[in-house]
Please model this.
Amino acid sequence: MASAFFVALFTIIAPSEVRRRDGTPLAHYPHDGLWQELKNQRRLLQDWRLLALGVPMLASEIVGAIWIGLMLDSWKIASRRTRGVVTVATVALVVIAGWVGLTVWLYRNPMDLLNPPLFDWTDGPFGGFFVLNLIFGMIMVIYQVTVQWIISTFTNDPEQLARLAGLVKGVLAGGVAAAFGTEAAGLPQLSVIAYNFSVQAIGLVLMAVVAWNCVTATNYDKEERVVPPTNERGLEKDD
Model:
């Protein structure tokens, strides 16, 4: 991540200098200035299409975040280990449903990225595609939050948690890059699905193993630099 600044500084050219094979630019890039850019942003916020689509874009992530948060932090399940395992199992069901649904949709609506199909919201394939988009928006949230929650149970040391957070974000970015790489390689869409589902399935198994074997009721009194809370609600029951 530290090298990204230097890579961008010395290897990425200005958009105005990008040329197609026939020598034409991608677009004209006049310098608008701050005030004009603010006006352009205001126009975006006044576009009813974006306002309408903002609800479903946010809805899946909001629902996923609230739902998975309630499961992982529920005091109705006293055991932290049990909460982790139950949550992983629930996430697995949603992930499987999402990938099965996408596979069925692609069988019925084959796609070639070099010649993408053209359809709008009034056409038959759009309904299923829209629902799948919401489901995978939710999967993105609940999968990542579950991984982060399990890792956060390893320690209560703020400095160690900061290191773990950096590691998690770095690995997550690598996973996104690998997923985009399968698309860039021109693999058939069903092969892309097979790769992504396999990685997520293996990840779910590993999450379940770690949650069962490594998540404990608490790490308080195990780390010298961490001060345990004095109230009883801050401490969980033993597994």
User: Anything to note?
Assistant: The chain has a mean pLDDT of 79.
